[in-house]
């Protein structure tokens, strides 16, 4: 389960577990709320610009380490259910 779905499930249980309703109503509510949750995040995009050089000495921040950090940032953004612009 991705981070966005985990966050949604936690929110859903915190909000609705105290309310008594038939299981089929709860399932329908869950489905509808999940669809709305996804739609609310579908328009969010993070634009990460790749910069080909730095303003620091090369030995302080080698290019491969910078690119690894960029890759890790994109992965974290995607795992939160947010789009990285251009992907």
Describe the structure.
The protein has 87 residues and is mainly alpha-helical. It folds into two domains: 1-43, no CATH class; 45-87, no CATH class. 59% of the residues lie in helices and 5% in strands. The protein contains three helices and two strands; from the N terminus they run ααβαβ. The chain has a two-stranded parallel sheet. Pfam families: Phage_phiTE_015 (PF26207).
Give the CA-based shape.
Answer: elongated
Overall SS class: mainly alpha
Strand numbers in spatial order across the main sheet = 1-2
Give the radius of gyration. Answer: 19 Å
The rounded distance between the terminal residues' Cα atoms is: 21 Å
Number of helices: 3
Low-pLDDT segments: none
Helicity range of the residues? 55-70%
Number of separate domains: 2
**What is the strand content?**
under 5%
Task: Report mean pLDDT, rounded to a whole number.
Answer: 81
Largest sheet: 2 strands, parallel
Query: What order do the SSEs take from the amino end to the carboxyl end, as H and E?
Result: HHEHE
Count every beta strand, where a strand is a DSSP E run of 2 or more residues: 2
Pfam family, one: Phage_phiTE_015
InterPro entries: Phage_phiTE_015-like
Question: How do you describe this structure in short?
Answer:
This protein has 87 residues and is mainly alpha-helical. It has helices at 3-16, 23-42, 63-79, and strands at 45-46, 83-84.
Could you list some keywords that capture this structure?
Phage_phiTE_015-like, 87 residues, 2 domains, mainly alpha, single chain, two-stranded parallel ribbon
């Amino acid at each position: 389960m991705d981070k966005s779905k985990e966050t949604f499930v936690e929110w859903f249980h915190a909000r609705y577990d105290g309310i008594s309703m038939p299981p089929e109503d709860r399932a329908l509510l869950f489905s509808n709320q999940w669809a709305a949750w996804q739609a609310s995040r579908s328009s969010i995009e993070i634009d990460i610009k790749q910069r080909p050089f730095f303003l620091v000495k090369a030995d302080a921040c080698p290019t491969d380490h910078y690119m690894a950090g960029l890759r890790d940032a994109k992965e974290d953004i995607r795992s939160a259910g947010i789009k990285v612009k251009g992907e």
